[in-house]
Amino acid sequence: xxxxxxxxxxxxxxxxxxxxxxxxxxxxxxxxxxxxxxxxxxxxxxxxxxxxxxxxxxxxxxxxxxxxxx
Length: 70
Hints:
Elements: H1 3-22, H2 31-65
Helix pairs in contact: 1-2
């Protein structure tokens, strides 16, 4: 099993557990709620970082192939 499937399964499991807990009124946040939020935010930041890096890499590669574009 490749690592992407493992990460996706773990993320799904954490979100599945955290969603019902977040929906309750008057419940004091626990470590599992905070952990799910932290992992979700981390995944968003990593995804955005990889996306921006890909844009930059493709731009530099295109400028290397056609210098007059730069």
